[in-house]
Amino acid sequence: MLMSTLCMRIVKATAAVLCVPLLLLGLASLTTPALAQITLNPVVCNGTDLATYSPPLINTEQSEQIQVSEQYSKCEVLDGSGITGASANYSVTRNLACTDVTGGPGMHVIQWSDGETSAYSYTVSDNFAAGNAVILFSGTITAGRYLGQTAITTFVISSGLSQANALSACAGPGINQLRGTATLVIAPKL
């Protein structure tokens, strides 16, 4: 019994001694871009969002063509990538009404200031808080820079769209644009 325990300890110690150099060789083979993908630092970008609806949103659900332009003029990034900004310009078709301006899950591509991209898959929710419409995208980076990391985008609509204004506009000619501030946060999954 004592001999088998001693043998097991020797085997474990030998395995550890052999594995450490292999692990170091594996880490040494990672390139700088690969190491950047492992960053523990969050990315925080601030900017603006503009969504244009055609035809204008009304109280009755209808097919909408939505053109979205997200412009992030300031990004705080501590991973050494040199990113200073980002943008996302995309178009989607959804069945929407004024009571739900989001239309469910989606995907779009974020274009970083250095030319790299990130594919962002998300679910969408909307709410009214402090008199403003707030739209929240919550999801994951599924390809490109920051692959596998969590992403959250918050849009605070500042184009005078309070809940009362929205109900009034939707009963009349409808709403053809929503604009406001945008914040994008990307962080590692924990």
UniProtKB/TrEMBL annotation:
Keyword match Signal: yes
Keywords (A to Z) from UniProt: Signal
Superkingdom: Bacteria
Keyword set includes Signal: yes
Signal peptide start-end: 1-36
Record's protein name: Ig-like domain-containing protein
